[in-house]
């Protein structure tokens, strides 16, 4: 059933965008419609730049504090998608893109899709999973708990980061 949705979106979205161009073009005229499309593309680029810099500062601050920046990464991904949608010509994608720049809308989207996504830190150092439960329990799934004896990794002596190479 879900596979049916993808072709429907791929065919339906361009048709809806064309219909949007026709409706807006009749109401505003050709040049105003083209100006509006160019204006939203420029606004998308500017918003993407300013919001992107803000997100980079947040990521840097969270990593300095040693926290896993799970929610910040999700916000960054949604802001990138919003910027791309604003750069694409079309009024429907512009409306969706502008909505994704609003933090409340991003939280709503994350609450809808977040339970299917797990963000794992480097070297398994921590994980972030969106959950609605106040206890923070992760949903059902396979869990592999390894002791130090169960998993060992012999160092590669030819690696430039090995202790043996550094001491030489």
Strand order across the largest sheet: 1-2
How many strand units?
A: 2
Average residue pLDDT: 77
Using the alpha-carbon principal axes, give the shape.
elongated
Poorly predicted sequence stretches spanning 5 or more consecutive residues: 131-136
Helix content: 55-70%
Beta percentage is: under 5%
Main sheet specs: 2 strands, antiparallel
In total, how many domains does the architecture comprise? 1
Order of helices and strands: HHHHHEEH
Class per helix and strand makeup? mainly alpha
Distance separating the two termini: 61 Å
How many whole angstroms does the radius of gyration measure? 23 Å
- Please report the number of helical segments: 6
Salient structural properties:
168 residues, mainly alpha, two-stranded antiparallel sheet, 2 strands
Brief summary:
By secondary structure, this protein is mostly helical.
Structure description:
This protein has six helices and two strands, in the order H-H-H-H-H-E-E-H. With 168 residues, it is mainly α. The protein has one domain. Helix 2 packs antiparallel against helix 3, helix 2 (30-64) runs parallel beside helix 4 (91-100) and helix 3 runs antiparallel to helix 4. The longest helix has 35 residues, at 30-64.
Describe the SSE topology:
Layout: H1 2-28, H2 30-64, H3 70-87, H4 91-100, H5 103-113, E1 118-120, E2 127-129, H6 163-167
């Amino acid at each position: 059933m879900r596979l049916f949705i993808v072709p429907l979106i791929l065919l339906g979205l361009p048709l809806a965008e064309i219909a949007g161009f026709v409706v807006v073009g009749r109401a505003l005229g050709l040049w105003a419609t083209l100006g509006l499309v160019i204006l939203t593309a420029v606004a998308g680029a500017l918003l993407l730049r300013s919001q992107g810099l803000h997100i980079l500062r947040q990521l840097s601050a969270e990593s300095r504090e040693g926290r896993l920046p799970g929610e910040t990464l999700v916000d960054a991904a949604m802001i990138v998608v919003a910027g791309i949608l604003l750069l694409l010509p079309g009024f429907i994608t512009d409306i969706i893109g502008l909505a994704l720049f609003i933090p409340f809308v991003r939280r709503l989207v994350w609450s809808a899709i977040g339970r299917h996504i797990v963000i794992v830190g480097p070297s398994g150092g921590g994980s972030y999973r969106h959950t609605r439960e106040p206890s923070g329990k992760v949903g059902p799934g396979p869990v592999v708990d390894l002791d130090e004896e169960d998993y060992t990794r012999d160092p590669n002596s030819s690696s430039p980061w090995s202790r043996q190479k550094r001491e030489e």
